[in-house]
Structures are given as C-alpha cells and as structure tokens.
Amino acid sequence: SSNKMWGGRFASGPDAIMEEINASIDFDRKLYAQDIAGSLAHADMLADTGIISADDRDKIVDGLNTILSEIEAGTFEFSRRLEDIHMNIEARLAELIGAAAGRLHTARSRNDQVALDFRLWVSAQLENTETALTRLIGVLLERAEEHADTVMPGFTHLQTAQPVTFGHHCMAYVEMFGRDRSRVRDALTRLDECPLGAAALAGTGFAINRQQTAEALGFSAPTRNSIDTVSDRDFALEFLGLAAICGTHLSRLAEEIVIWSTPQFGFVRLSDAFSTGSSIMPQKKNPDAAELVRAKTGRINGALIALLTVMKGLPLAYSKDMQEDKEQVFDAAETLELALAAMTGMVGDMQISAQAMKAAAGAGYSTATDLADWLVREAGLPFRDAHHVTGKAVALAEEKGCGLADLPLEDIQKINGAITESVFDVLSVDASVASRTSFGGTAPANVREQINWWRGRL
Ligand code: ARG
C-alpha cells in the first residue's frame, strides 16, 4: 500500500530494500523528546496565530503528551514503514485524535522539523560535555594542588629535558580541557537560532510567528535564511570537531598514563578499579582504560570525517544524504562522554610515586640548562659559550658515569676557570624547578597561582 503521509501520487508502496535504506527510525527515535517539544511549540503558535483552532490545538497537545508517555513507558510501537521519528509520531497522533492530527504539519516540513530536533539534541549534548569537562578539570586541579612540589622530568622528544613538577604537567591538561570547554560554549552560542518555520526551504505563506516558537523552545532568535536553515549541519560538524580535538587531548593524556604506569617508568600506579589483569601472567596490571580512551579518539575522528564527507558538495537545500548525520553524532557523543568519564576516574584515583618521578627528574643531566644559565648570570658568558662549556661538562660526567652535581669542582674548573662552589646550588632538581619563576613557568608558587586562577573559573 502507498504511504499515508505522502501517498497521494503513489500507486504502490516501497520495495523492501528501499524501506531498509530509507528508514531512519532505528536511530532517530532518540530524538522523540525533541520532536514532541517542537510539535507542542508549533501547535501552540498555530493556535495563537489563528491558523488552527484552539480546540484542535488542545487535542494535539493531549495526543502528543500521551505519545510522550507511551514512548517513555516503552509501549510505543515504532514502525520502519513510517520511516522516521517524525512520521511515527504523527501517525500515532492520527490514531489517537483523528483529523486534528493532520493540521499539525501546517506551515512545517520535516526539513525544518529535523533541523530543529537535531539542534536541540546536540545542544543538550553540548551541555553534558561541558559538565563532564568541568568535572575532569576539577580532578586535575586537585591532583595539581597535591603535587605542586612534586618534581618530575619534563620531556621533549620523550627524552629528559628539564625538571618540572607533576602539578605543572597536570595544569597543562587543564589548559587544554579548558579550551575544549570554551569551544563547547562557542558552539552553543552559534547553535542558538531556531530553524522552525523555514518549512521545506522557502518559508511559508501562513502568517506564523517564528519569534514565538524560537522563544518557547529556548532559542534567542529564529534563523534568518530559510534555505540555509534546512541545509545547515554546521552545528553537528562543530560538535564533532570539538569532540575530535578534545579526544586528541584525552588520547595524549591516556598515552602518558600508559607510559607512566610501566614498571620502567613507575611514575603512577593505576587503581584496581581502572586496570585489568592478564589471564596468563599473574604479575600484570594493564592500563586498559587508558588504552581504550586512546583508541576511542579514532572513532570520533572517523565520525567527523564521515559527516564532513557527507556534507561536502551537497547542493542546497535539503538532500536525504543529510539523514546520515545522526548516527555519527550519536556515536561520537556517547564515545566522548565515556572517554571523559573514564579519564576523570583514572586521574582521580591513580597513585603518584613522587620518589620515582624525582629520581628520574635528576637523570639525563636535566639541570644542564641551569648550569649554562649560571655561567651567563655569574660569569658573564654569552649564552652560546655557556652552552658549549656545559656540553663539555655533560660529556665529562657521562665519561665518569655520574651526574652533573657529582662532578668534583676541580674537574669543572678545568673546563672553565670562572666556575665556583656556588654552582652546585643550581644543579639540584628542586633548585631548578624553584628558579623557573617566569610567568607560566614551573616554579611551585607559580603553579599554585594558576590553580587559583582556574578555581575561580570552574
Ligand atoms: N529522516 C529525515 C532526516 O533525518 C527527515 C527529513 C526528511 N525530509 C525529507 N525531505 N525527506 O533527515
């Protein structure tokens, strides 16, 4: 049989494969609450503007509320034959209230309807992401405060570079997740326009009130161009884009946790709650949660590329291609939420080995720069010469198999006569870290200042 919603010009129903490729109900049923909210606002506006009667509006409102409770109770029967969430709900409304149901779709198209539903869904998800990020930042701030004085090696090329503190390192991630959170807020600002009333693409001849529906649905204003409104999925792309960037940050931290938790590094010990054992090797404690956070980023990136690829080259206005937006966004949203929660849990209860960090911080001549800086400050050498002298001292220490601070003064003086006993004051990792007082530097006092700055912004 032909379709109830648009069957007028159709003699027969769709092929089974057509139904299979066309139906979106299996995934877009997630939008039921948004769809009903949109219809309620639309029905109210249609009655207030005199386009439908108050009596029909009341029937529609009652029917939609019944449908909402049916869906929430799990008694609603979704049908693939009815394609999507919009037509499933409208068909049920017709069953419940009869002819009045047919008036709901006046001055509306599924094109502005789906743009509205999906915007509302993405907007709610952005709020969730913001909350999850705030939680993660909060946990990182706690760890940073606890370890503002805990010295660890800072790396470049994953080779020991200069001593830093674990607190400072945590705060680097606070900056990243803080930027992610501001990207969420930016996205929410741009998303804040209501599509309802754009209709199919050209707007409508009915005297609708778009301000009213925009306001009823919590938007600041209606969208300005009806063609753009039904063609635009920037809000979904922005969500995926910020999710991919946030995933990248999560993945870098996850990778560091994997490295830090190896017996070779031994910087952190994951809690039992966030690690797994091996079925054959009894000694193993594996950082599976960190590995999975690292890997899940791949899925989010995939979703971003998939939707960018769907949208590129689409002529204006709506094309059915755009139905492919939802699964990507739903999957990425679920993935990001899980990854953020797992990271928050892991960071919150991992144990930090200050001892292992400090031992490693002193290895690899990490205070060589401090020696060079001392030569500049105390002996007046140009930095390039100081660099050269220090290189010689490092080579000597390497030859003797000791650290810079363990070299006898006479030996260093043979490299440069201006060096005195006081050089040893700057060669310890604690002295090195304490000296880095430039704005944004790793000195514990600075890090505490940054922690306070962020606390005021949570
Ligand atoms: N299920 C469709 C989607 O998700 C709804 C819009 C249908 N519009 C249309 N012109 N066929 O995009």
UniProtKB/TrEMBL annotation:
Reactions performed catalytically: 2-(N(omega)-L-arginino)succinate = fumarate + L-arginine
Keyword Lyase: yes
Pfam families to which the protein is assigned, alphabetical: ASL_C2 (PF14698), Lyase_1 (PF00206)
Domain Fumarate lyase N-terminal: 8-302
Pathway: Amino-acid biosynthesis; L-arginine biosynthesis; L-arginine from L-ornithine and carbamoyl phosphate: step 3/3
Entry's Gene Ontology molecular function annotations: argininosuccinate lyase activity
Key word Transcription regulation present: no
Compartmental location: Cytoplasm
InterPro entries: Arg_succ_lyase_C (IPR029419), Argininosuccinate_lyase (IPR009049), Fumarase/histidase_N (IPR024083), Fumarate_lyase_CS (IPR020557), Fumarate_lyase_fam (IPR000362), Fumarate_lyase_N (IPR022761), L-Aspartase-like (IPR008948)
Principal place of residence: cytoplasm
Argininosuccinate lyase C-terminal domain segment(s): 365-434
Enzyme Commission code(s) on record: 4.3.2.1
Keywords linked to the UniProt accession: Amino-acid biosynthesis, Arginine biosynthesis, Cytoplasm, Lyase
Signal peptide: none
Family: Belongs to the lyase 1 family. Argininosuccinate lyase subfamily.
Name of the protein described by the UniProt record: Argininosuccinate lyase
The organism of origin for this protein: Hoeflea poritis
